[in-house]
Design goal:
- 11% of the residues lie in helices and 48% in strands.
- By secondary structure, the chain is mostly beta strands.
- It has a single domain, classed as Beta Barrel (Porin), CATH 2.40.160.
- It has a 14-stranded antiparallel barrel.
- The chain is globular and about 80 Å long.
- The N terminus and C terminus are likely disordered.
């Protein structure tokens, strides 16, 4: 009798364990569906990911070229995003239009089953100077998007061998393809007003882009239609110096729309120059600090701090959830930018960005 009771307890425990595995599998598949059909990867520091939000921003920044590193971690490293980009202007001269080119790689990792998105693209843009202080730019980017998952990290019912879970057993479950590669194209435009540094530092930028121009099925999940929706982005930023001081007020905003997903980011930075650059020599370099606060709709508050040391800019931000469903949810982000500034060669140099 004692043996039968022990066997019944063991049987009940195994059934519960299998049911729990089914629940975990179901949640993993649901997460995979969400991961495949939700918004494309993004950063809170949208102003520090130019090639991700609009291909027409290639070559739009200060100097002859810039390099950017980005990292974002969210929900205790459950979601991680990495970015690397390089862009610049070719034959960037005063009072002339010029060609901007760039390349970027972004990688998004999510969850315990190795869900990953890898996006590699090249961008080209033509900056048409319509007046001494105004540019209108159109750009195109093209590349590939790879979405993948590690099936070895899934737990399946047929890996139960009668005595317990055996990870060495190969599952016969066929639910999705582990990898999917598809083309990825974007088209964007922007308008830029800027004052020469010898006149002033006022600056205004307004741009928009359409992403995922080729509507493909990512085909990771065979039982769901995971066609990638068009993504529309609108972004703006400005730099407004406070007369008689070293302070600049820099408001900015970003809107992203993809399928049923919406994202709205609005905020403002205050940038203060600790040391101004020499206008005619290289004896003195620009050093500045920035502090800002942004809001993602009514869901998150984002605190930002930046430091510029001559050609290097470091930005750090933290997302704090304020809604009722995920109070206190955090997201850490850091960006490192290098801008190759040049003097005395008629290179077009707009006012400093965020």
């Amino acid at each position: 009798m004692e043996k039968n009771s022990r066997e019944m307890v063991m049987y009940y425990w195994l059934i519960k364990k299998i049911e729990m595995k089914k629940i975990v599998l179901l949640l993993s598949v649901c997460a995979l569906v969400e991961f495949s059909s939700a918004q494309d990867m993004h950063f809170s520091q949208f102003f520090n990911t130019p090639l991700l939000i609009n291909p027409s921003l290639a070559g739009n920044d200060d100097g002859t070229f810039q390099g950017m590193l980005n990292y974002r971690s969210q929900w205790n490293n459950t979601y991680q995003t990495f970015g690397l980009s390089l862009d610049g202007g070719l034959r960037k001269k005063i009072d002339k239009g010029f060609l901007g080119v760039g390349g970027a790689i972004y990688n998004d990792r999510q969850g315990d089953v190795g869900l990953s998105r890898l996006n590699a693209k090249l961008s080209v843009a033509y900056h048409n100077q319509i007046s001494r202080q105004q540019f209108f730019t159109a750009g195109l980017s093209g590349g590939v998007m790879q979405r993948s998952t590690d099936r070895s990290k899934f737990i399946w019912d047929d890996q139960y061998d009668g005595s317990g879970y055996n990870p060495t057993l190969v599952s016969n479950e066929i639910l999705f393809e582990p990898n999917a590669i598809s083309p990825d194209f974007s088209l964007g435009v922007n308008y830029l007003f800027k004052e020469n540094e010898y006149v002033g530092k006022r600056r205004f930028l307004l741009g928009g882009a359409v992403h995922n121009l080729i509507n493909v099925d990512d085909a990771i999940i065979g039982v769901e239609d995971t066609r990638r929706n068009f993504r529309y982005t609108i972004h703006t930023e400005a730099s407004l110096p406070v007369r008689g001081t070293n302070l600049e007020i820099q408001p900015s905003g970003f809107i992203s729309m993809q399928g049923v997903s919406r994202e709205l980011l609005l905020g403002i930075n205050a940038r203060y120059e600790l040391q101004q650059e020499s206008k005619f020599t290289d004896f003195q370099k620009t050093n500045a600090v920035s502090f800002g606060l942004f809001a993602r709709e009514l869901k998150d508050l984002i605190a930002y701090a930046g430091l510029q040391l001559d050609k290097y800019n470091i930005g750090v931000s933290y997302d704090l959830g304020i809604n009722n469903t995920n109070p206190g949810r955090g997201g850490f982000e850091i960006s490192i930018k290098y801008v190759n500034l040049t003097k005395f060669d008629n290179v077009y140099t707009p006012a400093p960005r965020l």
